[in-house]
Design goal:
The chain is α+β, with helices and mostly antiparallel strands. The radius of gyration is 26 Å and the shape is globular. One of its GO terms (biological process) is carbohydrate metabolic process.
Length: about 675
């Protein structure tokens, strides 16, 4: 990963990561550069003045889609003032545009040689992530009179970067240059346009629907202003909460991704830099988090995931009929089937979660038309749960990759290789089942029963689904309960042996509703107990487990999204104070990240570190971390759709003060919610 002084701007699937000078000098393993549709279109973009590199005075990432860099040649000191200053203004939005301004502060005229060294390795994002840059095609550079064309071709697969400037420049194979003369106090400006083009193996232009918008910056600014205006307004006596809410809305706007087939409609991309694309699980969970604030994202997500639902058996892609995709990629390695993400279906939670989101979306919006439109896809998803996901034949959802070369080993949300273990630290054989996915299946069947009875005119199907869900709940509470620890096992192996470790997954069981009422209090006690709760949030794995590591990716870190669903689940079972405790910890952590919660941070005790320690390679912004404050606000206010109306039942920590959420959209029109903090967290801890 690039150093800490990187500047990131993005617009959906297109993003730029540079140094604080605006320069880009990428290595094969660093996600710096200009990226779009999973390809790096610029890996070198270095500006010099008279052969000298520039140094940063300051930079300003003004909006998510633009940045401004204030620079001088050489090092400015207290004793010798710089005689030149350079301003680079950069916007990304389908293309990449940079305006360069040079000001002469000297008392005499100067002659300057301005040069931008430009190049591209056209690395696939997977090649950068895996630190393997093995290009099998031809990279070329073609200077023309009015532009520089950088390109890569491999058969019919083609990517090009075309660079041009408003002030005539000299173009060569390594970049572009100007020779300029500046009188005292004179300034010089040029606008540089970097356009990206992509042709797939079929010869089709992949950038259809991603064309550059006219007056790019103004269009992006208007779009952001409209996005913010359409969202509910949050007024609060807690200043960090207000700024965190605004930061979340802006980051959510930045992460909106328009799949190539949707003609401008958007869904949440998972996260920068590695996951700026469509993910089934991530997009669905983010939509659930933000439903009260941005319901339109759910409609797009459901439609595109339904359109790409599995239809056949494909071992390379781990595809089955009815299965919802895990990940979709557009780069070279996917195009030539060097990895299976075109799309790849290797997740076991996206399919039941698809049904869950459809039902929750209808409860909020009353969009019956979409429920009827997606009936076939919903039934296919439920059939996948029963017919194809039960690899052992005992009624649970299991996973085992069929693509043993490039498929995912763990196909739950904790998808790192060592995330599922027994109490002794050993890893179980495959197939594996994890607890939270069984909860999702239960929830999906209960919700689908409502849809079948109310909208599909199939009460018999509804009855059957409810019977199946009841049987699953009874069986689950028998097979997964760890009696001596009084919690649910993280997983089962194919022989039915429990992966008997205490994990955050038990919180997901609460929001799915599969937990027996008489066991819920013990689960709540674990979730805010010292082994799982650090003071900042709930750890992915409890302190004291063999594989516990406070900076282990899924074995002890704190994931904000995970905590938001845990808090939501606690509210479902009536543990409002415990939910407020978790919300308070996560929102406290957010202020140390300027309101932008990272993908994960360390599970250290709050008293030990005094501030949350970011996980070294955490994505930021990341969609379901961006959605976390929104779901926590919903949870603290107790916002729930109920019989066509919005129910409000607030439980806020005392220190949160008063919160107002105005113009909450839904089938009820727009309504307001008000609350004042009254949960004493010190009393709860005692």
């Amino acid at each position: 990963m690039a150093g800490g002084n990187t500047v990131r701007i993005l617009d959906g699937n297109t993003f730029v990561v540079s140094e604080d000078t605006g320069d880009i000098e990428a290595t094969p393993s660093e996600p710096t550069g200009l990226f779009s549709i999973d390809t790096r279109f610029l890996s070198k973009w270095v500006m010099t003045v008279n052969g000298e590199r520039l140094n940063a005075l300051s930079y300003d990432d003004l909006q998510y889609f633009e940045a401004r860099f204030f620079l001088v040649p050489g090092l400015a000191t207290h004793y010798i003032d710089a005689k030149l200053s350079v301003i680079r203004e950069r916007t990304v939005g389908g293309s990449f545009r940079e305006t360069v301004t040079i000001l002469n502060h000297d008392e005499k005229a100067v002659d300057l040689e301005i040069r931008i060294a430009a190049g591209s390795d056209f690395a696939d994002l997977f090649q950068v992530k895996d630190e393997i840059l093995n290009k099998k095609g031809e990279i070329y550079s073609e200077p023309e009179q009015d532009r520089l064309r950088l390109g890569y071709r491999r058969g019919n697969f083609k990517r090009e970067t075309v660079i041009s400037a408003s002030v005539p420049a000299r173009y060569d194979h390594q970049g572009l240059a100007w020779t300029i003369h500046l009188e005292p106090n004179e300034q010089w400006d040029t606008a540089i346009e970097v356009q990206t083009f992509a042709i797939g193996p079929s010869g089709r232009d992949l950038r259809m629907g991603l064309q550059v918008r006219e007056t790019e910056r103004q269009a992006l600014q208007r779009d952001l202003e409209q996005w913010l205006a359409n969202a509910p307004k949050v007024n609060t006596e807690h200043p960090e909460l207000a700024s965190t809410y605004r930061r979340s809305l802006i980051d959510l706007a930045a992460l909106r991704f328009s799949p190539l087939s949707l003609g401008g409609q958007t869904l949440p991309a998972a996260g920068l830099p590695w996951f700026m694309t469509m993910f089934g699980r991530d997009s669905i969970l983010t939509c659930l988090q933000v439903l009260p604030f941005a319901p339109a994202l759910s409609k797009t997500t459901l439609r595109i995931l339904g359109a790409l639902q599995g239809t056949r058996f494909d071992d390379f892609r781990d595809e089955d009929p009815g299965r919802i995709l895990h990940e979709m990629r557009y780069g070279e390695t996917a195009a030539f089937e060097e990895q299976p993400h075109s799309p790849y279906y290797g997740s076991v939670d996206a399919t039941p979660l698809f049904v869950v989101l459809l039902d929750e979306y209808e409860k909020w919006t009353g969009d019956v038309a979409l429920v009827k439109e997606l009936e076939r896809e919903c039934r296919a998803a439920l059939k996948w749960i029963d017919d194809y996901a039960d690899l052992v034949g005992n009624g649970y959802i299991w996973y085992e990759r069929r693509n043993t070369d490039t498929g995912l080993e763990n196909q739950c949300w904790k998808d790192s290789w060592d995330s599922i273990s027994y109490a002794d630290g050993k890893l179980p054989p495959f197939p594996r089942a994890t607890c939270e996915v069984q909860g999702y299946a239960y929830d999906a069947k209960m919700r689908a029963a409502r849809l079948a009875r109310e909208f599909w005119d199939d009460p018999a199907y509804a009855d059957r689904l409810e019977c199946q869900a009841a049987a699953l709940k009874e069986q689950f509470n028998r097979d997964w309960w760890v009696a001596d620890g009084e919690f649910y096992a993280l997983g089962l192996d194919p022989d039915g042996r429990q992966c008997d470790v205490l994990s955050s997954n038990i919180g997901h069981l609460l929001w799915s509703g599969i937990v027996n009422e008489d066991r819920a209090a013990k689960i709540a006690e674990h979730l805010i107990g010292p082994r799982l709760f650090s003071g900042w949030g709930v750890r992915t794995l409890a302190e004291g487990e063999v594989r516990y590591n406070p900076i282990g990716y899924h074995n002890g870190t704190i994931w904000p999204f995970d905590n938001s669903f845990i808090a939501w689940g606690l509210r479902r079972y009536g543990f409002a104070e415990e939910a407020a405790c978790i919300a308070n910890g996560i929102l406290d952590a957010a202020r140390y990240f300027d309101g932008r919660l990272p993908e994960a941070f360390g599970g250290y005790h709050r008293e030990l570190t005094k501030f949350p320690v970011e996980y070294p390679t955490a994505c930021s912004p990341q969609a379901w971390s961006t959605g976390t404050p929104l779901l926590l606000i919903r949870t603290m206010l107790g916002l729930e759709p109920h019989e066509g109306h919005l129910s409000v039942d607030p439980r806020l920590p005392v220190g949160m003060g008063r919160i107002e959420v105005l113009d909450i959209p839904g089938r009820w029109g727009k309504v307001d919610a008000f609350a004042r903090g009254r949960v004493d967290l010190d009393k709860l801890a005692a």
